[in-house]
Design a protein that fits this description.
two-stranded antiparallel ribbon, binds zinc ion, single chain, 136 residues, 6 strands
Length: 136
């Protein structure tokens, strides 16, 4: 499978939404990225099972991490893995804010800045266009 076909497949699978923050790309100036969930430098493959559709903000903040140190316990917590985890098991909407339902959800919200002021404003704008909250 060529890279351009892989990109198209990942975008279609995600229905145009970032698989971390669920932002829709239709209102964004930038095209979203194909993100390696496990980075290639850590042995992650470029196959569909290790790829996610990610907005520039989530991609930038996640960087090459797959886990973070939890602020409250000091323990290592995995970040949300779009292929291995179900989004709704770990996150829920509270108005325009995201709630972490699990240690994975809470760690990912902090690490990827998922409740940054700018993201809340984007969700408000998405609501005006019928794109928030996400249908699924
Ligand atoms: Zn995102």
């Amino acid at each position: 499978m060529s890279w351009s076909l892989i990109v198209a497949e990942v975008e279609q699978r995600a229905a145009g939404r970032c698989e971390y923050c669920r932002m829709h790309q239709s209102l964004q100036g930038a095209t979203f990225h194909v993100e390696h969930i496990v980075p290639t430098v850590q042995g992650g493959s470029s196959t569909l099972s290790n790829l996610a559709w990610a907005c520039p903000g989530c991609n930038l903040h996640k960087s090459d991490r797959t886990e973070v140190t939890a602020a409250d316990t000091g323990e290592s917590v995995p970040l949300f893995h779009p292929r291995a985890h179900a989004w709704s098991d770990h996150f829920a909407w509270d108005g325009f804010r995201l709630l972490g339902l699990t240690p994975i959800g809470r760690a990912t919200i902090l690490a990827l800045h998922l409740n940054h002021e700018r993201r809340l404003r984007i969700r408000q704008a998405e609501q005006l266009f019928g794109l928030f909250p996400p249908a699924d």
